[in-house]
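--- STAGE predict ---
source: upstream dedup step, 1 unique chain passed
mode: sequence only
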Amino acid sequence: MSENLKTIRELADELGVSKTAINKKVSDSERKQWFSKNGNRFLVNENGQKAIRIMFSSGIDNHKSKTENTYQQPESKTENFENANLKHSDINYLNDIIKYQNAQIEDLKETKSQHFKQLNQLQNLLDQ
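--- STAGE serialize ---
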């Protein structure tokens, strides 16, 4: 199974952010899922790359939406069509965010379950 792996540096350069910014945004559980170590370099798998892009694209889109609010109404059918495509891309972007957040929710549920099991084990040990 061949994956398109990138180093954190390559991904950071592509997104125009620092390696530190990526490391701060990615949680430990996400790091376990998306990162692998090759020598002294961490490689990010395709799922991780996509999720990290989504994490950092929100700031770009916020700036984009501010400039779009000042944009005047389209005057031709061609501009209406381009505006419709823009809305379609916004929908795709929002769907990607929803998928990412659902994955985070599932991860948090699993973490909560593990913590609950550990708590029960510790309580049993204390009772003994």
